[in-house]
Amino acid sequence: MWRSLGLALALCFLPYGGTESQGENFICKQPPDWSIRDQNPMQNSHGSVTVVALLQASYLCILQASRLEDLRIKLEKEGYSNISYIVVNHQGISSQLNYIHLKNKVSDHIPVYQQEENQTDVWTLLNGYKDDFLIYDRCGHLVYHLGLPYSFLTSPYVEDAIKIAYCEDRCGNCSF
């Protein structure tokens, strides 16, 4: 019990949900419109908690992707249903070449999107960096933006942020 309380308090005190580099407070705001190859992954996200992972097809991020799949299964077994997971791979050529390795570490339940070099960078639009996790509530409001070291899936911060977004109405005015 004390461990959970301590983690919840730590999440509450993290500036901007854990990403100190954000110059503007994006918490409780809708995400900017973004798409990859004419697909808007956030378009049908209303009604479910949405987890957006900004991962680069590199060793550490591929490991994170496999842990994200483990987290998805764990939360599902605990009764947390209707959670959408999205992985957005980095736009660089190295990430594009290793995209398949990243995609193979998650199930078909987690789409992995590959940005193209000539499109607007989704990571920049979301004010995100490598290994960031953005957690949106059922109404599409950003509840947490967790960056390193809080986004390591070996730590409980991402899981706790998902549970808070799932169980609480942190941003208010959500009809779901």
Give Rg in angstroms.
15 Å
CATH hierarchy, class of one domain:
Alpha Beta
Q: Averaged pLDDT, please?
A: 86
Largest sheet: 5 strands, mixed
Class by alpha and beta content: alpha/beta
Second-tier CATH architecture of one domain: 3-Layer(aba) Sandwich
What is the CATH superfamily label of one domain?
Answer: Glutaredoxin
Tell me how many strands there are: 5
Described by the principal axes of the CA atoms, the overall outline is globular
- Low-pLDDT stretches: 5-23
CATH topology term of one domain? Glutaredoxin
Helix content: 25-40%
Number of helices: 6
- Which strand order does the major sheet show? 3-2-1-4-5
Order of helices and strands: HEHEHHEHEEH
Give the termini separation.
28 Å
Strand content: 15-25%
Could you characterize what this model shows?
Helix 1 packs across helix 6. The protein is α/β, with parallel strands linked by helices. The chain has a domain at 45-165: Glutaredoxin (3-Layer(aba) Sandwich). The protein starts with a helix and ends in a 9-residue tail after the last helix. The chain is globular and about 40 Å long. The protein has a 5-stranded mixed beta sheet. Strand 1, helix 2 (59-77) and strand 2 (83-89) form a beta-alpha-beta unit. It has helices at residues 2-13, 59-77, 93-97, 99-103, 122-125, 157-167, and strands at 49-55, 83-89, 112-114, 132-136, 142-146. Helices cover 32% and strands 15% of the residues.
